[in-house]
Amino acid sequence: MALPEHDVADLGLAQAGVRRVEWAERAMPALGRVRDRFAAERPLAGRRIAACMHVTAETANLLRALKAGGAEIALAASNPLSTQDDTAAALVAEYGISVFARAGMDPAAYDRNLATVLERRPHLLLDDGCDLVNIAHLERPELLEEAVAGCEQTTTGVIRLHRMSAEGALRLPMVAVNDTATKRMFDNRYGTGQSTLDGIMRATNAMLAGRTMVVAGFGYCGRGLAERARGMGARVVVTEVDPVKALDAVMQGYTVLPMEEAAPIGDVLVTVTGNRDVVRAEHLASLKDGAVLANSGHFDVEIDLPALEAMAVEVRREVRPQADEYVLGDGRRIVLLAEGRLVNLGAAEGHPAAVMDMSFSVQALTVAWLAENHAELEPGVLEVPRRIDTEVARLELEALGVRIDSLTEGQEEYLNSWRA
């Protein structure tokens, strides 16, 4: 069999990748049902898809479902540290999908791979952070001539899309997969919470019980992280700029402080905001000796890395895997995890497959909906149709063997009549 076009580290890793993908598949029953349906109905026949996503076993199972539906797919990595080279090899050699991703690639290779998948002149874009959409609009607009729609699955990416739409720059209807109830509740809250702690503990082997963790940002991701850190015995301090979210944190029993007061008492500080410069030079200057810095927001801009480099008199690279130690002039040591990139993917394996089962089932069904209905949609940021979110929740409950009640005719009538 001729292999699809690709740029991966080592095709010899393909069998290890297959084992990894099949292991993840066991925990993704809803997506498996979607794949079976797609194989029978072929809703994506003749559609070219360009994807910028984390190259993980869970992503591989999403792409397998899309290919079963008839799609031709080209995948580039959305983060240089999250690529699993064995998964990339398996996608090419075993599943016939074009992949352009290597673990640890430099920024130039990252940009080149995004351009490569766009040169396939895709009909549909699947983005994770809005880099693919951004480059297509700013640098290669001619490659959007055949594009009809797309999906974005991160908070950061949705924020960028809304700004593009507000300025009249967005040329495509883009669905904010991130904003569905299942995505926010399970992926952002439970997935990010667990996988972020997983990355911190793999990189440091630190005890969290009895230590102070500062969680910057109390959205769904920050909330999940705070819950799990408290469950492991950490004292959790929350920083926020949104009064409503800050009040929510207070009502849940967390200490809420501005970063200037939180930074000096934190043993572990984690940013999860989707914004830049959350931990700045003045905060870095007040950190205690041995403080650990991690980021679980999409881009590596939440911690002021140039300021940290400038303050350090010595940098000890990889004192542990994915842990760099910065020694300041007064002898204090600051430990940065995963180069300030997503710690849950840079130092661990990202969300559990069971969590991604729901997110990627929503993504797959949304792609099929876009392929069928794009002509009726206007450029802008759209919501996932409610029925898709509900269907995925139903599929997941069925896979778990959970049964729920249904409304009686009388209840339906009562809810739909103001005269009752």
From TrEMBL:
Pathway: Amino-acid biosynthesis; L-homocysteine biosynthesis; L-homocysteine from S-adenosyl-L-homocysteine: step 1/1
Cross-referenced CDD domains: SAHH
SUPFAM superfamilies to which the protein is assigned, alphabetical: Formate/glycerate dehydrogenase catalytic domain-like, NAD(P)-binding Rossmann-fold domains
GO molecular function: adenosylhomocysteinase activity
Entry similarity comment: Belongs to the adenosylhomocysteinase family.
Cell compartments where the protein resides: Cytoplasm
EC category name: hydrolase
Cofactor or coenzyme needed: NAD(+)
Protein name stated in the entry: Adenosylhomocysteinase
Origin species: Streptomonospora nanhaiensis
Cellular component aspect of the GO annotation: cytosol
Function: May play a key role in the regulation of the intracellular concentration of adenosylhomocysteine.
NCBIfam families in alphabetical order: ahcY (TIGR00936), PRK05476.2-3 (NF004005)
PANTHER family recorded: ADENOSYLHOMOCYSTEINASE
Binding residues for substrate: T56, D128, K183, D187
Keyword Cytoplasm: yes
Residues that hold NAD(+) according to the record: 154-156, 188, 217-224, 240, 275, 296-298, 344, 351
Catalysed reactions, as listed in the record: S-adenosyl-L-homocysteine + H2O = L-homocysteine + adenosine
